[in-house]
Specification:
The chain is an alpha+beta fold and 295 residues long. The chain is 37% helix and 14% strand. It is built from 11 helices and 6 strands. Strands 1, 2, 3, 4, 5 and 6 form a 6-stranded mixed β-sheet that branches. The radius of gyration is 20 Å and the shape is globular.
């Protein structure tokens, strides 16, 4: 059947291969105004790493990493995540770059050793205990939060908005030298139609589907983050809204697949070795930097 076999005219795609569509001008901010160009992907929903905590157990979330070391409850993240997203976010927030001058995956051993030194200090204080190595993904972290096994954790926003316990509050990841940093992912509508008439109709539909008021309502129900200030303004007032707005403005797109493939496992192994007191920070950083794997 020819009608059933034809290519779609409008495609819903997750971040890649349209990563740049989620940023308006190449800056750090996650909010982007959808393009009016016919062939440009139009972002409509976002997701970002946030800190969730139980207000009855954590009166004040840590604003920076120095404050994190003073916590009396564990700071929980998936230490065995094969993509090492949280550790890479710490590394980048400290000024670390992910590519060398030739564009190849890169890990600055000196900056990474500073991150590992922090982990060692946090483990020693009981803030980031060795048992964090049991967690491989943010879904496990969120389950532990729901089951009251942890009171403060790093997870993706989309895990939480649709089913957060009443006592849940949100915060940004701890800042480095006053600068906020987190990762973001998202969804876009991409035009695939080839002829001019069909592309025009696809664009009209995409414009309707990304209209601020319409989009904000169903994105809220799905548990995702708006990708424009207009969409966020159309959201109902809530205690979480100011924090989520700050998170969106400080978000950076996830590292590309080749970066995660090369850096993820070496960084994860280094972090776990520190939490388990199996290596010293400088040696572990050097080993990770020298052991990057190719795609």
């Amino acid at each position: 059947n020819k009608a059933l076999s034809r290519q779609p005219d409008l495609i819903c795609s997750n971040r890649s291969p349209h990563r740049r569509a989620l940023r308006s001008d190449g800056s750090a901010g996650h909010h982007a105004r959808p393009s009016t160009r016919t062939g440009s992907p139009r972002p409509f929903a976002g997701d970002t790493l946030v800190l969730v905590y139980r207000k009855s157990k954590v009166p004040e979330p840590p604003a920076d990493w120095s404050a994190a070391l003073e916590l009396t409850t564990p700071f929980v993240f998936p230490a065995s995540d094969p993509n090492s997203l949280f550790i890479l976010a710490m590394y980048q927030s400290n000024g670390g770059v992910l590519r060398d001058q030739d564009g190849r995956p890169f890990l600055d051993a000196e900056i990474f050793s500073q991150v590992l030194e922090f982990l060692a200090d946090a483990e020693e204080r009981g803030v980031m205990p060795y048992w964090l190595a049991q967690y491989q993904g943010d879904g496990e972290i969120w389950d532990a939060f729901l089951e009251n096994r942890v009171d403060l954790a790093v997870t993706w926003l989309s895990n939480t908005l649709a089913a957060a316990p009443e006592d849940t509050a949100y915060a940004l990841l701890p800042a480095t030298q006053g600068k906020d940093f987190t990762y973001a992912s998202g969804w876009v509508w991409a035009m695939a139609a080839r002829d001019r008439e069909t592309r025009a109709l696809s664009l009209e539909l995409a414009q309707f589907l990304t209209e601020d008021t319409f989009c904000a309502r169903w994105i809220e129900l799905l548990g995702f983050l708006p990708v424009s200030s207009g969409m966020l303004a159309a959201w109902p007032e809530s205690e979480a809204r100011p924090v989520l707005q700050q998170a969106a403005l400080s978000a950076h797109l996830l590292p590309t697949t080749d970066i995660l493939t090369s850096l993820g496992i070496p960084v994860q192994q280094a972090a776990v070795s520190i939490l388990k007191k199996q290596a010293e920070p400088q040696a572990a950083a050097q080993a990770a930097a020298g052991g990057l794997t190719g795609p």
